């Protein structure tokens, strides 16, 4: 199922953003903090703060998401649309065992999943009865990933999901995302880390001051960037030393 964004603007912070993500595509959205990446993701999910207004068009398949009622959006979230945030505790209930939390998306959408199976799939067997505070940051991120993948969403958005993790755990989470995501599921991976984009995504969008300034295959953009800002990002990354 294709995500099609056309002329998306969010107040004055995101301006005239357009891109497509086809079924099974892995697309990176890169840029520094404040460039509009997360606002773009929140607009797709219908989770913008009340004071911000989105205009343009966001279509998932044949359905227009902008202007869709909260009731209808709620039916899509956790089923066809799922998101993994940078800080997993924002998505976890500290007073609920993680086993119940990972099966909650399935229950909401009329599906039955075994918590043990979902947690084992992300490398956390035997943790169903644990509470979030009993797990490490990397383990909590795995729980959130299990929740997001439970219903095999048409689109998974990952917003800086590995930023707060050490390098070893980061690598494990990225491997899980690549291997556990359904072949039919599209991925929008938001990050400022070009090395992460290179390892996960086949296509990349570069965002600066609320606008897409460059887009193309990951290989093309990271080896022969056309925009000065992309060249600046590349020069500041570890990838430059490897070229």
TrEMBL record:
Species in which this protein is naturally found: Amycolatopsis rifamycinica
Keywords: ATP-binding, Cell inner membrane, Cell membrane, Membrane, Nucleotide-binding, Translocase, Transport
Source domain of life: Bacteria
Subcellular location, record wording: Cell membrane
Membrane topology of the entry: Peripheral membrane protein
Cited InterPro entries: AAA+_ATPase (IPR003593), ABC_Ni/Peptide_Import (IPR050388), ABC_transporter-like_ATP-bd (IPR003439), ABC_transporter-like_CS (IPR017871), P-loop_NTPase (IPR027417)
Domain ABC transporter: 3-234
CDD domains in UniProt: ABC_NikE_OppD_transporters
Main location, first listed in the record: membrane
PROSITE patterns in alphabetical order: ABC_TRANSPORTER_1, ABC_TRANSPORTER_2
Family: Belongs to the ABC transporter superfamily.
Cellular component GO terms held in the UniProt record: plasma membrane
Name of this protein: ABC transporter ATP-binding protein
A Gene Ontology molecular function term of the record: ATP hydrolysis activity
């Amino acid at each position: 199922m294709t995500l099609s964004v056309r002329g998306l603007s969010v107040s004055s912070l995101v301006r005239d953003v357009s891109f497509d993500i086809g079924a099974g595509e892995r697309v990176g959205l890169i840029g520094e903090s404040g460039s509009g990446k997360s606002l773009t993701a929140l607009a797709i999910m219908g989770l913008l703060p009340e004071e911000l207004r989105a205009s343009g068009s966001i279509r998932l398949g044949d359905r227009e998401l902008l202007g869709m009622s909260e009731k209808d959006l709620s039916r899509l979230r956790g089923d066809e649309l799922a998101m993994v945030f940078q800080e997993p505790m924002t998505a976890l209930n500290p007073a609920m065992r993680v086993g119940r939390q990972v099966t909650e998306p399935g229950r909401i959408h009329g599906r039955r999943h075994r918590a043990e199976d979902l947690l084992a799939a992300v490398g956390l067997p035997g943790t169903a009865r644990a509470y979030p505070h009993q797990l490490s940051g990397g383990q909590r991120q795995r729980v959130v990933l299990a929740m997001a993948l439970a219903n095999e969403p048409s689109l998974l958005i990952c917003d800086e999901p590995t930023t707060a993790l050490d390098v070893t755990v980061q690598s494990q989470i990225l491997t899980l995302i690549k291997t556990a995501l359904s072949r039919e599921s599209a991925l929008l991976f938001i990050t400022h880390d070009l090395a992460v984009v290179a390892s996960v995504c086949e296509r990349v969008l570069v965002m600066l001051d609320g606008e897409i300034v460059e887009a193309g295959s990951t290989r093309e953009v990271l080896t022969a960037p056309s925009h000065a800002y992309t060249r600046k990002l590349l020069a500041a990354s570890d990838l430059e030393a490897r070229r």
